[in-house]
Specification:
Distance between the termini: 39 Å
Keywords: Signal
CATH topology of the largest domain: Porin
Protein name: Outer membrane beta-barrel protein
Pfam family, one: CarboxypepD_reg
InterPro entries: Beta-barrel_OMP_2, CarboxyPept-like_regulatory
Number of domains: 2
Strand order of the largest sheet: 9-10-11-14-15-18-19-20
Shape: rod-shaped
Structural class: mainly beta
Length: about 290
């Protein structure tokens, strides 16, 4: 237990350090002369760094990957060099800084199944399928040009149907096992984003999640010699101990707002950590 807590603390510290170290922003501004005319082909530099750019015909400039903490920008035209541009007075920063933090909502539907040596799927005998539904909201924190950290609160319902295995007869039970928890999930994902078109990104995300069951039940059969038959057992999943697993996904951000993707999840059930399951889902979302 202590090792698990230590590992969790180390993970949290690493996430915080990565966020602090990689904090950058996009800086947009305009250079004008004493007569309020735009200055073309002026060199703009972040003081104390090698980050430079050149103004366009309207005097506008854009600087990428600028440290979040900076004091001054320097502008130079030919041999003339100004005294420095005060960041709070000359640069449109506020909107760009807030863009590092964006809220999103998403929902998904997919298939699920038990995995492991004691379980097998009988999809032809289960026409309704093993389905999972989920929806929730979260925050996307930009860490750099390509990286971001995503966390959310997701309400998830998973329907798992399967058969138990009898080692004595080397056969599967005729009666099915059902596991249908409604749970709160807290994913902690790192996302890698690549621009593939104007305002469109290809996104890969990967990370762990933790989960807590809030309702549902598990039903299974155990042979009772006194009855000489299998007896149904039901376990309430409310408030079962924390569990979790891992999530991997790929998707597309369209026009910086619309989210389309797929997600693969593998984890332990909240009934027994020795029982595992996996889900494959299709999801839609919107980023504010």
């Amino acid at each position: 237990m202590r090792k698990r807590r230590l590992f969790a603390y180390i993970l949290m510290v690493c996430c915080c350090l990565a966020d602090v170290i990689a904090q950058t922003q996009k800086v947009i501004g305009q250079i004008i002369d004493e007569d309020y005319n735009p200055v073309q082909n002026a060199t703009v530099k972040v003081k104390g760094t090698n980050l430079t750019t050149t103004t366009d015909k309207d005097g506008n400039y854009v600087l990428e990957e600028v440290p979040l903490i900076l004091d001054t920008l320097e502008a130079e035209k030919g041999r003339r060099k100004n005294r420095g541009i005060e960041v709070p007075m000359k640069i449109k920063m506020r909107t760009q800084v807030m863009d590092r933090f964006s809220w999103f909502i998403k929902a998904g539907i997919g298939t699920s199944q038990f995995i492991g040596a004691d379980y097998t799927m009988f999809s032809e005998e289960n026409p309704e399928g093993n389905l999972t539904y989920y929806g929730g909201a979260g925050i996307d924190i930009r860490l750099g040009r390509h990286w971001s950290f995503q966390t959310a609160v997701i309400l998830s319902y998973t329907k798992l149907l399967d058969r138990g295995y009898d080692y004595n007869t080397s056969s599967y039970y005729k009666r099915k096992i059902s596991h249908d928890p409604l749970s709160l999930e807290f994913p902690l994902l790192f996302a890698l984003k690549f621009k593939i078109a104007n305002r469109t990104n290809l996104v890969f995300d990967l990370g762990p999640y933790v989960s807590l069951g809030i309702s549902g039940e598990q039903k299974y059969y155990v042979y009772d010699s006194s009855y000489k038959n299998d007896v149904l057992h039901t376990v309430d999943l409310y408030g079962r101990r924390f569990t979790g697993g891992g999530i991997a996904g790929v998707g597309v951000e369209i026009r910086d707002h619309y989210l389309i993707g797929t997600s693969f999840k593998i984890g332990a059930t909240c009934m027994d950590h020795g029982e595992s399951y996996m889900t494959f889902s299709f999801e839609l979302g919107y980023k504010f």
